[in-house]
Amino acid sequence: MAQNSTCRRDFLKAAGGAALTSSLFTGNVQGANDRVNVAFIGVGRMGSAHIGYAARVPGFETVAVCDVRQPALDRFAGVKARKDFREILADPSIDAVCISAPDHWHAYMTVEACKAGKDVYVETPAFVYLEEGVKMVEAARKYQRVVQAGTVERSAASVQKAREMVRSGALGEVRFCRAFQAATTDGGVHLVDILQFAFDEAMPISITAEGGRFSMQATLRYPGFVASYERRAGSTYGTAFHGTEATLMVNPGAGMHVPHWQNFLECIRTRGKPISEIETCVRSTATCVLADIAMRRGKTLDWDDAAWKLEI
């Protein structure tokens, strides 16, 4: 699939301009005692887990589930069960949706949910093709929706503490970071997001990568530091910040999902920006997509060079 040529600043303007405003969402404000009716689209392993997390947040009411597989729907009694997600979006009694469908559905369903006036929790990765990410951000802004992404590490106490230490200078000057994961996991977006969350960096300025399906070594160059992303068999999972005074290793662990849903509920009620607003997940997902492109093309992708084109 051919993508339009672009440059880093143009992509950031399209995919992140809304993040510069202090009041991105201005929809109807729910009262403090109102319950938010939520439907879950895709109720496999992750979707079912989200139902459990939401149930632990007073204020959410699970009213519907959606999946193309009848056995998946049969597991949920007492709520509406639909096979066509469009019926969920057309239901005026539903305030928000959680999208845990396969990756290639994330962008389309998010855009359609925003158009239908629903607030959205969408799993990672945000999209498959770069153009889709821009459309997701545009839809969130145009229809004034709260869109929380599934980069749940931002709600982890350990990651928030690490961000505080990096920004305070407790590690000294941080010039190199390392993110690493096992080849059998799909945590690339999450690991890159931890780095970009810690530094408030939108995107790398250049990306070089090599490897194959089950292994990758990517070098992400940001304005103030360099990051290494590794995906290989036998690797553990984590992020390291190497400063001139100390090195900090971060593994988010458990306990992230319920606070993430609590943040989503708060933002639905206040119309504030969630901790993992869609702009940030689009940037982290785009970084990973570009790393894969750099690996397959065997060359460095430089966002400051407006001449190069993306070919997938």
Low-confidence stretches: 1-7, 15-32, 306-312
- N- and C-termini, Cα separation: 5 Å
| Arrangement of strands in the largest sheet | 12-11-7-10-9-8-13
What's the level 1 CATH class of the largest domain?
Alpha Beta
Give the number of helices. 10
From the helix content, strand content and strand pairing, which structural class follows? alpha/beta
The arrangement of helices and strands along the chain is: HEHEHEHEHEHEHEHEEEEEHHE
Tell me the CATH topology of the largest domain. Answer: Rossmann fold
Roughly how much helix do the residues carry, as a percent range?
25-40%
Q: Multimeric state of these chains? A: single chain
Instruction: Provide the gyration radius in Å.
Output: 19 Å
> Could you say which overall geometry the principal axes of the C-alpha atoms support?
globular
Number of domains: 2
Question: What is the CATH homologous superfamily assignment of the largest domain?
Answer: NAD(P)-binding Rossmann-like Domain
Q: What percentage of amino acids are in beta strands?
A: 15-25%
Throw out a few tags for this protein.
312 residues; alpha/beta; Rossmann fold; Dihydrodipicolinate Reductase, domain 2; 7-stranded mixed β-sheet; 6-stranded parallel β-sheet; disordered N terminus; disordered C terminus
What's a quick, concise take on this entry?
The protein is of the alpha/beta class and 312 residues long. 36% of the residues lie in helices and 22% in strands. Strands 12-11-7-10-9-8-13 form a 7-stranded mixed beta sheet, covered by helices on one side.
